[in-house]
Each structure stands twice: as structure tokens, then as C-alpha cells.
Specification:
Layout: E1 52-53, H1 98-119, H2 121-131, H3 133-160, E2 175-181, H4 188-196, E3 204-210, H5 217-228, E4 232-236, H6 242-250, E5 257-262, E6 265-267, H7 271-281, E7 286-295, H8 302-324, E8 335-339, H9 340-345, H10 355-364, E9 369-380, H11 386-406, H12 415-423, H13 427-446, H14 460-480, H15 491-518
Parallel strand pairs: 1-4, 2-3, 2-5, 3-4, 7-9
Antiparallel strand pairs: 5-8, 6-9, 7-8
Length: 525
């Protein structure tokens, strides 16, 4: 399980509303409410805005200046019973404070690591004569104790996780959805179609932030919006960089909440409502909520099949653990909601390759909280070529380093946020241990030298299967169940995910760390 993996589904049913020429990468659909054909009569007759706003420069956006802490004001909204979703705290279960769950998870982790040290004594004794005492402890810590401790903490946290009920059933607060796009002619129509089909009861405005597209992205978007009667505003930003496009659009946001959606991402019909419901059901100092992003083109090839499991299990598990402690480290740009005033308070999205990572850490810096809503589901296209995948994961690794540099964990005011953010300091060590020690150990084992990898390593497999089995049951019952979606079979992809996927991830991450340290040129795509 990759602790820094970032979100997708195992052959899950996904909305298929992209244009016909994209149907080769859209899986089968099992819901009638996400049919690809949408007519004007099916959508509320919002006012169409095909005017194009003039270029806005960064100086027009509120700069990041120190601002004293002030209470966050929420718009009054309709409250009602929760509607489906993850298991919640009910009268049948006694309430357990988050800090108590944290202490229990830490205690379990300590016990797990202690047992690992005791069990590994014989291994240490065998390895010392081969590589010496110092290198022995480096190997054992990076290969066994550190990854075991992190997985133990996450597993304990997931067992203790009980998502609070959605006290706000049907929010009506105005929302602006920003879709940043560059040369997305093929996918933008599907994104807008799914936005138009949302069941959100409040005002929904859409801003297309065009970042210098050279194809027909704007034309297709305007034609689609006109057909749907969608409230669309197009703004142009010629300076390259997603943060520039987002900040240009931010200057036009007039609603209390702003949602970011990638141009190749399709929202489930209930996703926007569930995302905002979580925000308005959370404590008053909550400033953002990250949605669930899953893979929709898993049938393309083996690589996308593996990513499907990563998004569905690995990334979702990490976000659930972080969300339990109200410290989700990435309110990802693919699908998240933010308080508009809070984003402006910190100066908008930073000029960073991981702009969503840095903006999330800055939002939490003053003690604010960021939640995760498992049932607010969106579907995106995963990279289909290895080089594109490696480039994406390298960007994610660089983005994590940018977040650590911009807001080090010790600057986080909340203790729980400080701890969860501090785990990211250990992630590079995990990648080093896996790529530079574990993999060579496999080669030595194959050659008859079981110094690093031995038969004891096989114990890891059933433990991994047990953890992922529990995660799959949760996702199927509490995420896909309420949304009336089904999980399709993808056994070969699952096996490849377990045995070989981390090789790609750790290798790409090491490349990203090196690129960050060397200061190489950043790329959006």
C-alpha cells in the first residue's frame, strides 16, 4: 500500500457522458441517471453566459498577506436527516473523541513495531556479519519497521473510523465550479454535461478557466453550455500554469463556496450535493472538503487496471485515515470544495507544481480543518502510457516537497494536523527503502542469498490481502452501495497492483524528488 498514493476504482461503474469519440475509454455504465444524452429540457433553464471575460493578471487577485484569525461565517442552510454514505456515529455506538482514536492508533502502532523488533531479532543477527551493524539497522528500519509502523497506524485508524452523519441533507448555498483547461476539446463536453445533471439544489455557476488552449476547447464548451442552458462564464489566462488559470477565475467568484473540477473529470449526479453537505455538516472551522476521485478508463490496458485499484483502495484509504483526524493533506484540484474567502485570504493558489497540496496546507496552517467525503464521487482518466504515469507521479512527489517547504509540519497549529503532515517527512524514506533496498533484495533472493528478502517476507502477503479486503468491503458497501454503483471484476489488475505497481510508483517518486532538488523545469502535464 503506498501511503502517498493519490485516488481511482476497480472496474467500477462510472458515468459515461463524454462525446462519442471517447467511448473507447469509458467503462460500462450501470445507472440510468448518467446517460450520455442530455437535452435542454432535462436541465434547469439557467441563464447562459457565453461572454468571455478579459484577461486578469495576478495583481488583480488578493495577495497573500498575514490576516488575524477570525471566526468562519457559514451561510444558514437547510438541515435534515443524513442520506446514505459511510458508517456514522449513531446512538448504538458510544461517541469516541478523535483524540482518543488517535491515541489508540498510536498505541497499536507502538505494539506492532515492538513485536516486529522482537520477531526480527534472528534476521538482524544473520545480517550483521554480512553488511555490518550500521547498514543492518538501516536495512531493517527502512524495509520492515518504518513501512510496518505506517501501515499499522493507517490500519488501526481505518478500523476506528466512523464518519459523522451528514446533518445537512440538502444544502442550497451558492457554488461556483472552476474548470481549469488547456487543450481539452475532447473531454470538456462530458465534464459540463455531468455538471448540468447535478442534483444540487442551490445555485451552481461554472467558470471555464482557459489556460491558452490552441484547440477548440472554448468553442465546444460554449456550444455545450448553450445546449444545456448551463450558466457558464469563460475567462482566459494566457500565462501558462494551472495556478494562474485558477486565480484568474477566482477573481470572478461571487459565491461562498468554490469547487475545482479537472477538465477530464465527470461528477456523479449526487457528488456536488454530498461534498457540500459534508462541508456544512463539519465543524465551523472546516475550510475545505476533498471528494473521492476514481478511475473511469480502467479497461484501456494493464496500467490503468492497476491504477484503478490504487485509486479505489490505496488513495482512498490514505484519505480516510487523514480525514478521520480532520487533516486531509490534499484537497485535490480534480474535485474539492473550498470556502471562497479562505482561499482569497491565503492569496489564492500558489505558483507550484502541486498547487492543490500547497493551498491545502496553507488553509490548515492557522488551525483550520480539511475533511474527506468518501461518497462524493468523481471519475477521471488515468494515464494510459507508462511515461505519462511516471511524469504524473513525479509531479505528485515534487508537489509534496513543495508543501513541506511552504508549510513545514511543525508550523501547523493543530496537533493532529502536525502529526499527519509529519508522516510525509517519512515518505521519501519509504521510497528509498523499497526501490534501493527491497528490490535488490528480491534479486539476491532469486540468486540464493536471502539476506534482505526471505521466506518470512511471505507473511506480508496475507496481511496485505486482509487490509485490502477490508477496504474493498467498505468501499463496496458504504460508497458504491448508496450511489447504486457496482464493482466489476479486475482480478488480473489487482494481482499486478499487489506485486508490481509499487515499483513504478517508488521509481517515479525518486525521480520527482531528484527533479525538485535539482530545480528542473516544471510541467503542468
Amino acid at each position: 500500500m503506498s501511503p502517498h498514493s493519490g485516488a481511482r476504482t476497480p472496474d467500477a461503474a462510472v458515468p459515461s457522458s463524454a462525446p462519442a469519440h471517447r467511448d473507447e475509454v469509458v467503462p460500462d455504465v450501470h445507472r440510468d441517471d448518467v446517460a450520455p444524452d442530455v437535452h435542454r429540457d432535462d436541465v434547469a433553464p439557467d441563464v447562459h453566459r457565453d461572454d468571455v471575460a478579459p484577461d486578469v493578471h495576478r495583481d488583480d487577485v488578493v495577495p497573500r498577506v498575514p490576516v488575524p484569525r477570525v471566526p468562519i461565517q457559514r451561510v444558514p442552510t437547510q438541515r435534515g436527516p443524513a442520506q446514505g454514505g459511510a458508517p456514522d456515529a449513531t446512538s448504538r455506538r458510544p461517541y469516541v473523541p478523535v483524540w482518543v482514536k488517535f491515541l489508540l492508533a498510536v498505541a497499536f502502532t507502538g505494539a506492532w513495531v515492538g513485536a516486529s523488533v522482537w520477531v526480527s531479532a534472528a534476521w538482524v543477527d544473520e545480517l550483521v556479519p554480512v553488511v555490518g551493524p550500521v547498514l543492518t539497522w538501516v536495512v531493517v528500519v527502512l524495509v520492515a519497521y518504518l513501512p510496518g509502523g505506517i501501515v499499522a497506524f493507517m490500519a488501526a485508524s481505518l478500523v476506528l473510523d466512523r464518519q459523522p452523519a451528514l446533518s445537512v441533507a440538502n444544502p442550497v448555498t451558492g457554488v461556483t465550479v472552476i474548470v481549469a483547461a488547456r487543450d481539452e476539446e475532447r473531454g470538456i463536453a462530458g465534464t459540463l454535461i455531468n455538471l448540468a445533471r447535478t442534483d444540487y439544489a442551490g445555485e451552481v455557476r461554472v467558470i471555464l478557466a482557459d489556460n491558452g488552449s490552441t484547440d477548440g476547447t472554448v468553442r465546444v464548451a460554449r456550444e455545450t453550455a448553450e445546449t444545456l442552458g448551463l450558466d457558464l462564464l469563460v475567462v482566459r489566462e494566457s500565462r501558462p500554469g494551472k495556478s494562474n488559470a485558477l486565480n484568474t477565475a477566482l477573481a470572478y467568484v461571487r459565491t461562498p463556496y468554490v469547487v475545482t473540477v479537472d477538465a477530464d473529470t465527470l461528477l456523479h449526479r449526487e457528488a456536488l450535493r454530498r461534498l457540500v453537505s459534508r462541508l456544512e455538516s463539519a465543524p465551523q472551522d472546516t475550510v475545505a472538503v476533498a471528494g473521492t476521485v476514481l478511475v473511469r478508463n480502467s479497461r484501456a490496458n494493464l496500467l490503468t487496471r492497476m491504477q484503478e485499484w490504487d485509486y479505489y483502495l490505496g488513495i482512498a484509504a490514505v484519505k480516510r485515515m487523514q480525514g478521520l483526524y480532520q487533516a486531509t493533506l490534499v484537497a485535490q484540484g480534480a474535485f474539492s470544495v473550498y470556502l471562497t474567502d479562505e482561499v482569497r485570504r491565503i492569496g489564492g493558489w500558489p505558483d507550484a507544481i502541486g498547487e492543490d497540496i500547497v493551498v491545502t496546507w496553507r488553509l490548515m496552517e492557522e488551525g483550520r480543518r480539511v475533511y474527506f467525503e468518501p461518497t462524493a464521487v468523481a471519475f477521471t482518466d488515468a494515464p494510459e502510457q507508462v511515461r505519462h504515469f511516471m511524469r504524473q507521479r513525479a509531479r505528485w512527489a515534487r508537489g509534496m516537497f513543495e508543501g513541506l517547504r511552504a508549510v513545514p509540519p511543525w508550523r501547523q497549529r493543530r496537533v493532529l494536523t502536525r502529526f499527519i503532515a509529519g508522516i510525509d517527512l517519512l515518505i521519501p524514506l519509504l521510497d528509498i527503502g523499497y526501490a534501493l533496498i527491497w528490490l535488490p533484495g528480491l534479486v539476491l533472493f532469486a540468486l540464493g542469498f536471502p539476506w534482505i528478502v526471505s521466506v518470512w517476507t511471505l507473511v506480508v502477503l496475507p496481511v496485505t490481502l486482509l487490509v485490502y479486503g477490508g477496504l474493498r468491503r467498505f468501499q463496496s458497501r458504504y460508497v458504491f452501495g448508496p450511489l447504486d454503483l457496482r464493482v466489476r471484476r479486475n482480478r488480473f489488475g489487482y494481482l499486478a497492483f499487489l506485486l508490481g505497481y509499487q515499483v513504478l510508483c517508488s521509481t517515479a517518486s525518486l525521480a520527482g524528488y531528484a527533479q525538485h532538488l535539482a530545480g528542473t523545469r516544471r510541467r503542468w502535464k
